[in-house]
Amino acid sequence: MNTIELKNVSFNYDDGTPALEDISLSLASGRCYVIKGPNGCGKSSLFRILNGLSFPTKGEYFFKGTAVTPKFLHDKKNAAIFHSKIGFLFQDTEVMLFTGSVEDEIAFGLYQLGLSDEEVKSRTGHYISALSLEALRRRAPFSLSGGEKKRVALASILAMEPEVLIMDEPLSGLDEDGQSWITDALKSLKSPERLLLIATHNDQLVREISDQTILMDKFHHIVN
Amino acid sequence: MHIPDNYLSPQTCAVMFAAAAPAWVISVRKVKKELPPEKVAMMGVGAAFSFLGMMFNVPLPGGTTGHAVGGTLIALLLGPYASCISVSIALLLQALIFGDGGILSFGANCFNMAFVLPFVGYAIAHAISPNWGKNKKRDLIGAGIGSYIGINAAALCAAIEFGIQTMLFKDASGNALYCPYGLNVSIPAMMAGHLTLFGLAEVVFTVAVLAFVWKAAPDFDNSTVKAKTALPVKILLGVLICAVPVGLLAEGTAWGEWGADEISGTGAGYVPKGIAHGINYPALLPDYSFSGLPDWFGYILSAVVGVALLVIIFRIISYIASKGSRYDRAVA
Amino acid sequence: MTERLLKAIAAIVDSDSNSEKKPSRMSPALRLAVAVFAIVLCACSRNAVFVITVLTVELIRMALLKPDRMIYVLKKLVLPIVFTLLIMLPAVFFGHRSTMLTVTMKVAESVLILLLVNEDLSWKEITGVFSEIHLPSVITMTLDTTVRFLVLLGRLAERIHEAYLLRSLGRAADRRKMSAAGGILGTVFLKSSKMSQESFEAMQCRGYNGAYRRLSRHRFCIWDALYLCAVPMLVIFFIITQKAI
């Protein structure tokens, strides 16, 4: 059984324009997939569906064998378990950072997991040092630079220790140093228990990290 | 419209806190239960907007400032309960961090701007356009008139709170203890500005943003927590609105009598020599008596004040001087 | 207005990136509570000695600040004092001779106390107080998002305003300015509501279930105990001075 299974998924926007047409995907744990495609090919819609923010107009989405439907996620317990297993790095990291300080940002997800204060503290501390954020610990996320924001957003997701990591253009808006830093970080994230799914235009990142490349065309199909 | 500290008596402030408290509690409950969660996230945007509107402020004679609040706008976009919380939070941040509006008068400020304003504005807008969302033109007219009346209602409340101080709180010699102007001064002073300039600013602020939002994003979700309030809540709110003035009067007279009795018997006006030196205290502070405290206390106090002031002045001068010399050296 | 807004935003961001400002040694909640308590007592006091003494203590604290902060506090203090003096001046001729000084003195005292709280605590510590006293998470969350959006809105409004100026080649007629202001505000509103929508989705992705808490909880320490002593001292002194009238 693959971790993520999409069966003949189509998705239309509210006004009826298609964003995805008849997409089938099967993604296995322990691998790193890279999605490439032109702007407007439906990547964002695909990611929204995978994260349970939107639901297929047609077709089905199975996560670890369970169908992800509005009804399934309406149950708070199901939603909590589902979201704790998938981490999603938004393209615009600004929107992901909504608390008053870096450490609160990382702790936010951990509190949602229902961990004890002590656990939250120690895990937050661990990920702060893992992504070398010590100096920024008490800073407000909105006053950080683009690269720093990316790191904080990444830390806040990794701290929840998800099995699946989905990243939308993790290198966008970063300078060269930032890009190589994130590339190295992503490489170190590859593990047999983890599934990585990354959308990027950066060929070097594809070369360095990809186990399999998924190409999408402008007609909202998957090519290969 | 921010009332600073010490313009209102502590008693008035307490009454106003008591009046604002139920509005807060009901609003938080309503928002938690009925506002969709993604709209809850919008409340911060609303508060930031209100904060923005309040920065257009102009001092008004009579003791306060005039500005737009945006309470009606937020009420129309997110519902009056959410607006109550948003404006309260904008006021809280201003009082605590930016020093606009007092801490003690926070209750009064919230009652005026976070409770009266959005609820009145919202009610009038919906009264003018009962089928909200059906006829955009009519909605906008309703929003304009609602926001105008809303902000003026709030200004009137503030003016009354100011104006009754001098009726209620006086010392033995008839000097006002807080805001010294009666209703005959405070109401014209407040209303002149709000009926014209600030009322207009609020209308422009409300209508311009609403019109733009509806034009640019016609599908902007208009679902709000409707002010369809349960009857008991309505009664409670009604009683509150009526009870506040009564409470103010009752509290005030009790304190006023006590104050006058106590003070008239104490020989106010006597000031020990140590303090009276130099500054003409007896004329300026007749209600403040130093009697009963030992003279040495006055001496020590004035010595400490002097030392503190000297340290402040000296350090600032040396700081400026060192900055200047560094600059000179850099230039040289 | 834009200038004031940008200044306010700069103050928020500066205080945040200022590495010299260490976290408060005493509990922020306690610091704020004592400040508010002192303001209440001063407002209630009928005896100038009490108010002047509190003012003196605050002056000493101010004398201990760094000179640049002193100048900042003084600047902030002058405006409300002058404003109050001007407003209260006519009352002197209406026969309220003492009101002007009484009210001005108390206003100075309230404003100074709050300014010094802001010197001791960062805005984050102040807003943090409200999550510490267990207010509903709706309020604490809105408080944090308000500060965040204030900064974001300000930057956005500035950018849009610049873009507008560039396009209008600096010849914006006053009449058009009004509608442009509506457009800028409207755009900013839509943009920020879209952002808040996405932020909410990001929260959902991290399993948001209504919990909104701050991480660092202050532990009661010796500084708190010392500071707590200020309360009985204030009360006793207040009673003595009120009796002395």
From TrEMBL, chain A:
Q: Which InterPro entries match?
A: AAA+_ATPase, ABC_transporter-like_ATP-bd, ABC_transporter-like_CS, ABC_transpr_CbiO/EcfA_su, ECF_ABC_transporter_ATP-bd, P-loop_NTPase
Q: Which SMART domains does UniProt cross-reference here?
A: AAA
Domain (ABC transporter) ranges: 4-222
Q: Which UniProt keywords apply?
A: ATP-binding, Cell membrane, Membrane, Nucleotide-binding, Translocase, Transport
Family matches, as CDD domains? ABC_cobalt_CbiO_domain1 (cd03225)
Q: Which GO terms describe its molecular function?
A: ATP binding; ATP hydrolysis activity; ATPase-coupled transmembrane transporter activity
Under the heading Pfam families, the entry gives: ABC_tran (PF00005)
What SUPFAM superfamilies does the entry give?
P-loop containing nucleoside triphosphate hydrolases
GO CC entries: ATP-binding cassette (ABC) transporter complex
| Main localisation | membrane
Write down the membrane topology: Peripheral membrane protein
Domain of life, per UniProt, equals: Bacteria
Q: Where in the cell is it found?
A: Cell membrane
Family annotation (PANTHER family) = ENERGY-COUPLING FACTOR TRANSPORTER ATP-BINDING PROTEIN ECFA2 (PTHR43553:SF27), HEAVY METAL TRANSPORTER (PTHR43553)
Record family assignment: Belongs to the ABC transporter superfamily.
Q: What is this protein called?
A: ABC transporter ATP-binding protein
Organism annotation? Candidatus Weimeria bifida
From TrEMBL, chain B:
Q: Which residues form the signal peptide?
A: none
- Write the protein's name: Cobalt transporter CbiM
The family database entries (NCBIfam families) matched by this protein are listed as:
PRK07331.1 (NF005598), PRK11909.1 (NF008873)
Q: Which organism is it from?
A: Candidatus Weimeria bifida
Judging by the UniProt lineage, the source's domain of life is Bacteria
Give the gene symbol: cbiM
Question: The PDGLE domain covers which part of the protein?
Answer: 235-321
Membrane topology is: Multi-pass membrane protein
Q: Where in the cell is it found?
A: Cell membrane
Q: Which UniProt keywords apply?
A: Cell membrane, Membrane, Transmembrane, Transmembrane helix, Transport
Q: Where are the transmembrane segments?
A: 7-28, 40-60, 72-97, 103-128, 140-164, 191-214, 235-255, 296-317
What biological process terms from GO does the record include? transition metal ion transport
UniProt keyword Zinc-finger present: no
| Major subcellular location class | membrane
InterPro entries in UniProt: CbiM/NikMN, PDGLE_dom
Gene Ontology CC annotations of this record: plasma membrane
Q: Which Gene3D superfamilies match?
A: 1.10.1760.20
Does Membrane appear among the keywords?
A: yes
Q: Which Pfam families does this UniProt record tie to the protein?
A: CbiM, PDGLE
TrEMBL record, chain C:
Q: Does the keyword Cell membrane apply?
A: yes
Signal peptide bounds: none
Q: Report the domain of life of the source organism.
A: Bacteria
Q: What residues form the membrane-spanning segments?
A: 32-57, 77-96, 220-240
Where is the protein found, in the record's own terms?
A: Membrane
Q: How does it sit in the membrane?
A: Multi-pass membrane protein
Q: Which GO terms describe its cellular component?
A: plasma membrane
Q: What is its main location?
A: membrane
Report keywords, A-Z: Cell membrane, Membrane, Transmembrane, Transmembrane helix
Q: Which InterPro entries match?
A: ABC/ECF_trnsptr_transmembrane, ECF_transporter_component
Quote the protein name from its UniProt record. Answer: Energy-coupling factor transporter transmembrane protein EcfT
Organism classification, top ranks? Bacteria, Bacillati, Bacillota, Clostridia, Lachnospirales
